[in-house]
Amino acid sequence: AMEWLRKTGLAKADKKASRIAAEGRIVSAQASGKAVLVEINCETDFVGKDTSFLKFSDTVADVALKSGAAGVDALKAAAYPGGGTVEDAAKALVATIGEKIDVRRMARVESTGLIGSYIHGGRIGVLVALKGGSEELAKGIAMHVAAMNPAYVRADDVPAEFLAKEKDIALSQMSDKEKAKPADILEKIVAGKVNKIISEVTLLGQPYVLDTNVTVADALKKDGADVISVARLAVGEGIEKATADFAAEVMKQAGLA
User: Which among 4, 141, 173, 234 is placed 20 to 30 Å from 219, CA to CA?
Assistant: First the structure.
């Protein structure tokens, strides 16, 4: 039966390879000193809630953690419980589910310190490794990253090209009267505007979602902690999703389209 499923799944997977799979789940697995996130995609929200898909994705997260896979290619090639590889299991699942299944991305975080993990509705997953701090803080920072999606961790991480662009924008938004100020004063005004943008796009500069009276940097400092690394995955991120109405999806699931 497994051999038949694999052969059938391979044929169906080949036919569906070009289809868009932008739904699915972010799953995680964690053990002492290590944690993983995996994005597994399907074509519709219906399948994203299917018990076979849920079981498969949870198993893949466990394989990702225990296999030591550092990237998605290694994960797809890793052994799947029951025989074959993760990629084989994904293709076999196509035979029973009837949609494209894609183990698309993964992130691994390893640390001798704390690792905070947070999954929001199966759609967004975050891992945060801290030096010092507490489990409560690590999870809180992970929740913050899920909600605010900062582009960078700290000011030093912001690219020079980004800063140059923001400086040009700040100058273009200034009035002629402001631009007529002495060069040193003008530089301070522009620096203030750019620093405000830096705070908005960096994790440490943002107001902490669990206490907006302080920044994330302040919350970390209070607990004697620092952020070592951050990983964030969101379902379908970067995929151009095809639009389909609800009726069409129902007909598709019923085999009428």
Answer: 234
